[in-house]
């Protein structure tokens, strides 16, 4: 992947680093094309929400960082999907916020870096992501939808995820290496399953 984004997106350095590469977000959106509405919890500067909005009717995107939400709105304009996304500055663990969100599919994408280390050092448990993926998953399932996709680091395995139920893990590979993974928790997935998705450099 030569270029992370096809447009000159606006992002602070950390958000740029943590954001999902555009081609991968586009691929994820295609995998979820049976859904018409989505919520993205932890959107940063909006990259995944933007790709979802390209194929869905409505997307809600939440991040606790006010500046990132401002930049996400500008980025949505760059991709001409600003009218399809509602951006909210808020805490994704806030029950009162989640209760008022409605969507058919939820994408959860917390920060996986180990606090106080290089961004490239990743946590190994659901509770250590920021915020906790275990809590995000429980609240999303309770208040929004049971159809959930989570973006997870390489360090996570089926064992790491077992408390959340069966899922399909998709290894996202480029340059011959798995860079991160998606875990899909959709109604039709009854057993653990695994697939690879490779990009050319
Ligand atoms: C990995 S980035 C998200 C990348 C984005 N989903 C994308 O597709 O490019 C994680 C984001 O989680 C946000 N975040 C961390 N804790 C949060 C919380 N409690 N509520 C809302 N957002 C939070 C951070 O501000 C950061 O922007």
Topology:
Elements: H1 13-18, H2 22-31, E1 37-41, H3 47-55, E2 58-63, H4 66-78, E3 85-89, H5 95-98, E4 105-108, H6 133-143, E5 148-152, H7 158-161, E6 168-174, E7 177-185, E8 193-199
Parallel strand pairs: 1-2, 1-4, 2-3, 4-5, 6-8
Antiparallel strand pairs: 5-7, 6-7
Helix pairs in contact: 2-3
The protein binds S-adenosylmethionine.
Could you walk me through the main structural features you see in this protein, from its secondary elements to its overall organization?
By secondary structure, the chain is an alpha/beta fold. The protein has one domain (about 15-200): Rossmann fold (3-Layer(aba) Sandwich). Helix content is about 30%, strand content about 25%. Strand 1, helix 3 (about 45-55) and strand 2 (about 60-65) form a beta-alpha-beta unit. Helix 2 crosses helix 3 (about 45-55). The chain is globular. The site of S-adenosylmethionine has 23 residues, from helix 1, helix 3 and strand 2. S-adenosylmethionine binds near residues 20, 44, 91 and 111.
Task: Please provide a brief summary of the model.
This protein has 201 residues and is of the alpha/beta class.
